[in-house]
Specification:
The complex is a heterodimer of chains A (about 425) and B (about 100). By secondary structure, chain A is of the alpha/beta class. In chain A, about 35% of the residues lie in helices and about 25% in strands. Chain A contains 15 helices and 17 strands. In chain A, helix 1 runs parallel beside helix 3. By secondary structure, chain B is α+β, with helices and mostly antiparallel strands. The chains are: A alpha/beta (about 425), B alpha+beta (about 100). Chains A and B meet through helix 3, strand 11, helix 6, helix 7 and strand 15 of A and helix 1, helix 2, helix 3 and strand 6 of B.
């Protein structure tokens, strides 16, 4: 057993864990952070987009030395069928601002930098150490962790579970259930390297400008899912994700889906001639507000993906992780400053503060979206995209058919596929879940 | 559309760096005579194609190429079809980009 006792142990060195460890160390707490990877970041996978506001609250001058890729000036949403895409593109020179709002990043590199800040703040960061279980006393109170190192028991007043989406330790200790296949997505991603000039030319970018493409439709073959393309300085992050339950049900393969997305005629020219340097996979919490487990208990709190804090509609996760990590740490520091014990009652301050933040407010807003998207995936991810693409083609193709006739055919194709009542109820359900 | 030939997954895994913990598989399949539908679905759902069907019709796992996502845990752990844990500290996949 390691005799040294800590104020707090943080399990995991992703966005949530780093935010928590940094905040507590800066306020003078004795913090130990445990990470199973070779270095902080080596196990972490994300698209990835960084939201500046949430990082600024932790490291105000991060732009001076953080490994940022490109700041985003354009967002493209695509609805795709087999051979086409219909897009809404939003690009604004306003995003070429002094302090840009969103950046693409490469997580392994970014997290290494973030971890250095955590160390500089005074936390002890121990890598290559897998936490195997939570130590609980006879009352079920969490008093520390057991690791896979020799004599690996370590004690602390409070454990911050920032262990990521799988939440293995929380499940093992009976603090929460396992993520369910219909509440979690599997995403696979490749890193495609191209010259900077090629990326600039293909995406109409200059300097450090960057762009995001998000695509939904027939690429997910009727499953609830989405493809993404993010431009980095000298590479493109390209991936696709679908619900685990959908993979299980359909027998589609994740890599088959990825290959299909890459072959799509709107995508293939963007990555032509690239050199792939990595293939990764990661789970994403998709259950929303209703899937959030218990957030704190006797001697423990849970943050980030481990708490399933992910806004699937806006594709925000890492900022929710950073914010929940920071808020949990602030609550712990406040309890500590009063010399109060880390009981469930005292730690519920974290829950209260999180409820008052955008994290829970946003998740609450969309609490009915997961059920809507997950139970009608054929309609939303296959039928509508096909109908929509066909309608767009009819609209722009000039072939001598009178316009009135075209409109009639368009409308009847929607009614034929979904019926009037189906169309109406889909519209109502979306409106109600969006509210 | 039929799934792509397996060759392609192995090509993908070739890009990655691993430190394999020889003799200590972090995922184990429970011995069975006929695989459950959950276990059988892993032949397709595993993004690293770690699960394969043996000549005897058993589902077997080889974790060397595992990218530690947790998909098989989500599908197969609760029923006891597999035992799942992360690799020992420092071992497993080593992402350069993530």
């Amino acid at each position: 057993m390691i005799e040294e006792r800590f104020d707090a142990i943080v399990v995991g060195a992703g966005m949530g864990g780093n935010a928590a460890a940094l905040t507590m160390a800066e306020r003078g707490l004795k913090v130990l952070q445990l990470e199973r990877g070779e270095y902080s970041g080596s196990k972490n996978v994300q698209g990835a987009i960084l939201y500046a506001d949430m990082l600024e609250k932790l490291i105000p001058n991060f732009r001076e030395d953080a490994p940022l890729e490109r700041h985003l000036v354009e967002q493209r949403f695509w609805i795709v069928d087999e051979r086409s895409h219909t897009g809404i593109h939003y690009r604004s020179d306003d995003f070429n601002e002094e302090k840009p709002n969103r950046y693409t990043i490469i997580r392994a590199q970014f997290d290494k930098w973030f971890s250095q800040k955590v160390r500089e703040a005074g936390a002890t960061v121990l890598c290559e150490t897998t936490v195997t279980e939570l130590l609980q006393d006879s009352h079920g109170r969490v008093v520390g962790v057991r690791t896979d190192r020799d004599g690996g028991e370590i004690h602390a007043d409070v454990v911050v579970l920032a262990e990521g989406v799988n939440g293995v330790l929380g499940t093992g200790a009976g603090l929460r259930g396992r993520p369910k296949p219909d509440k979690i997505a599997l995403a696979v991603k490749e890193m495609h390297f191209l010259s900077r000039e090629t990326i600039d030319a293909r995406f109409n970018l200059k300097g450090d400008e960057g762009l995001v493409i998000e695509a939904a439709g027939t690429i997910s073959r009727g499953m609830t899912g989405m493809g993404f393309i993010y431009s980095n300085k000298e590479c493109i992050s390209l991936g696709i994700g679908c619900l685990v339950a959908d993979f299980q049900r359909t027998g589609e393969t994740p890599y088959g889906l990825l290959e299909g997305f890459k072959r799509h005629p709107s995508v293939a020219p963007l990555i032509e001639g690239s050199e792939v340097k990595e293939y990764s996979a990661h789970l994403i919490p998709e259950g929303g507000y209703r899937a959030i487990p218990q957030l704190c208990g006797e001697g423990w709190v849970v943050v980030g993906d481990a708490a399933q804090l992910n806004n699937a509609i806006h594709r925000e996760g890492s900022n929710l992780a950073m914010t929940s990590g920071r808020i949990a740490a602030e609550a712990i520091c406040l309890i500590k400053s009063r010399n109060d014990p880390m009981t469930a009652k005292n730690l519920s301050l974290y829950k209260k503060l999180l409820n008052d933040s955008f994290v829970i407010k946003d998740l609450k807003k969309y609490k009915d979206m997961p059920a809507l998207m997950h139970t009608h995936s054929q309609n939303f991810f296959l039928t509508y995209p096909q109908l929509f693409s066909k309608a767009m083609q009819d609209y722009v193709r000039v072939d001598g058919t009178p316009k009135l006739e075209k409109e009639k055919l368009m409308l009847s194709s929607f009614v034929k596929a979904r019926s009037w009542s189906g169309l109406l109820s889909d519209a109502l359900r979306i409106a109600r879940a969006w509210r | 559309m039929p799934s792509e030939p397996s060759r392609r997954v192995e090509d993908k895994l070739f890009y990655n760096r691993y430190l394999v913990d020889s003799g200590r598989a972090h995922i184990k399949v429970r011995p069975h005579t006929t695989p459950s539908s959950r276990l059988f679905s892993m032949l397709k759902a595993c993004p690293a194609r770690c699960y394969e069907l043996s000549d005897k019709g058993h589902v077997e796992v080889t974790v060397d190429g595992c990218i530690e996502c947790g998909t098989c845990r989500v599908i197969c752990e609760e029923s006891g079809d597999i035992e799942w844990s992360y690799p020992r500290g420092g071992y497993g996949v080593l992402f350069k980009f993530g």
